[in-house]
From TrEMBL:
It comes from Paraglaciecola hydrolytica. This is Type III pantothenate kinase. The lineage of its organism: Bacteria, Pseudomonadati, Pseudomonadota, Gammaproteobacteria, Alteromonadales. Catalyzes the phosphorylation of pantothenate (Pan), the first step in CoA biosynthesis. GO terms for molecular function: ATP binding; metal ion binding; pantothenate kinase activity. Its cofactor is K(+); NH4(+).
Length: 239
């Protein structure tokens, strides 16, 4: 990186911490991962500002704020807003919408001006749809592993294994039917997003992000675009 000011972007998700070190004006980013906030100490010492998005890990946020205070670095915690960068949130109680979803929406609007669905596949699967600059709503569903765990915990004589196929077909054993049924549900969320967008426009895009995006590699439609972390790209808008 050059001598430009550097910024640390941090996405504290349900299962891990994702982060990126960027400079102002940078368009791409390398997504890195860590478990403990103390692993970021040396990076925090180098930056002009830390930008944080968290879906509820209050203790981790407090640890980061303390680290930044120790090293006299500004730390900004981003929250969902009713309107930001000209984009309007569909939620009447906008503070209850996860900031990860909101930042992914902000990132998506920077990427495309077409009607767009933002699908985040992870611990939970979410979909949000934006038409022009209006977020019109979305869905929250259990992620692949949560679906599988819920099915196994609440049914009798249903069992599964860890042989997860990324290619959708029909199962011919109970473990295959469980794994492929959950996979069908994940892929179905994307296809329903496409069906919804088609009601509003003939041209649209679907942006896929999240740790489980590899589960839908069977879907090859040209309107699908894959991103390692849209939350961090959304944080870049605040630099």
């Amino acid at each position: 990186m050059s001598d430009q000011a550097k910024y640390l972007l941090i996405d504290i998700g349900n299962s891990r911490i994702k982060y990126a070190l960027v400079s102002e004006g940078q368009e791409d980013l390398a997504v890195l991962h860590c478990v403990h906030t103390t692993e970021l100490t040396q990076i925090i010492k180098q930056v002009a500002k830390v930008l944080v998005a968290s879906v509820g890990k209050t203790l981790l946020v407090e640890e980061l704020q303390s680290l930044c205070q120790q090293h006299k670095v500004e730390c900004q915690l981003i929250h969902t807003q009713a309107q930001q960068f000209g984009i309007h949130c569909a939620y009447e109680q906008f503070t209850t919408m996860g900031v990860d979803r909101w930042l992914a929406i902000l990132a998506a609007r920077k990427i495309t001006l077409l009607p767009v669905a933002i699908v985040d596949l992870g611990t939970a699967n979410t979909c949000d749809i934006v038409i022009e600059n209006q977020h019109i709503g979305g869905w929250i569903a259990p992620g692949f592993n949560l679906m599988k765990q819920g099915l196994l915990a609440n049914t009798q004589k249903v069992f599964a294994d860890n042989n997860v196929s990324h290619h959708l077909s029909l199962g011919v054993s109970t473990p295959e039917c469980v794994n492929l049924g959950c996979l069908a549900a994940v892929q179905g969320l994307v296809l329903m997003a496409e069906s919804t967008l088609a009601k509003y426009a003939t041209s649209y895009e679907i942006l896929i992000t999240g740790g489980d995006q590899n589960l839908i590699t069977d879907l090859k439609q040209p309107y699908l675009h894959y991103f390692p972390n849209l939350v961090l790209l959304g944080l870049m808008r605040f630099i």
